[in-house]
Specification:
Largest sheet: 6 strands, antiparallel
CATH architecture of the largest domain: 2-Layer Sandwich
Radius of gyration: 19 Å
Order of helices and strands: HHHEEHHHEEEHHHEEEH
Shape: globular
Structural class: alpha+beta
Strand content: 15-25%
Oligomer: single chain
Number of domains: 2
């Protein structure tokens, strides 16, 4: 078992990765943000951050309030987002991996992303068992009590993670739901280190889940592949066996995405 690693020999552009982090920082901020706040939040130099913001503004990716001089996401990014939603290529190209995961484990396989501080189900291959889990495509779930939510949040930059944690509520759904922030952060650190996460009846009694991240070419966890089913079938033996399978399929999905990015 192990985390997916970026193939050797792949070259990436650091400035592009930083620009994406700036966009994410603005997206997850509560309202408009200024250059100083962004540079401090991401630990970037003020001058470099300012030039990056100017470039993004020139491309209409972000907009600047002429009065406050602060920034917000631009309409062009919204238009791009709509196109991405329509194409939704991830849910299409990763379908075979969901089917493989379903067939190897016998449990329902899910593909999720994070949006608006929630987990969103974008694809699913339903189990053929009589008793099985099913979630409607497009449905949302909280981050803190789902395997996918914890996995995706765990792999966010610490600054983005803190912004999200300050906004969401750690509502209690069962006696196993983590509602203490300090304990939850420790759980996220553990998940990031080990490369997978569990939902042990934290959202709903009788339901368990195992999830692992899918990475893009820039090493960002853009989705989570998981299985869900009745807790009674998630025995110690099955959990160990299925965890290996989930990690394997997630790694294969990552490898494929990196060949088409």
């Amino acid at each position: 078992m192990g985390n997916s690693k970026k193939p050797r020999g792949r070259k990436t552009i650091a400035s592009v990765k930083k620009a994406i982090e700036v966009i994410e920082y603005i997206a997850y901020s509560d309202g408009e943000v200024g250059v100083t706040e962004i540079s401090k939040g991401l630990n970037y130099g003020v001058s470099a951050t300012y030039h990056m913001l100017n470039t993004l503004r020139e491309c209409n990716i972000i907009e600047q309030n002429e009065r406050t001089k602060k920034f917000k996401l631009g309409l062009k990014l919204w238009q791009i987002g709509l196109l991405a939603y329509e194409q939704n290529h991830i849910s299409i190209v990763l379908k075979p991996y969901l089917k493989k995961l379903r067939d190897l484990t016998g449990e329902t396989a899910n593909l999720t992303i994070m949006d608006n501080d929630q987990v969103v189900y974008i694809a699913q291959e339903e189990s053929n068992r009589l008793v099985r889990m099913f979630t409607q495509t497009g449905a949302t779930e909280p981050l803190h009590c789902t395997a996918a939510g914890k996995v995706l949040l765990a792999h966010k930059a610490k600054e983005i993670q803190e912004l999200i944690l300050n906004r969401i509520k750690l509502d209690k759904y069962t006696d196993k739901t983590i509602v203490d922030k300090k304990e939850f952060v420790a759980e996220l650190n553990k998940i990031r280190k080990q490369g997978y996460g569990f939902d042990d009846e934290e959202r709903e009694l009788g339901v368990s889940c195992i999830g692992a991240p899918v990475f893009d070419l820039s090493d960002r966890a853009i989705a989570c592949i998981s299985i869900s089913g009745p807790t009674a079938r998630f025995t110690k033996e099955n959990r160990e066996k299925w965890l290996d399978i989930v990690l394997q399929v997630a790694e294969e999905a990552t490898g494929y995405l990196r060949t088409i990015d």
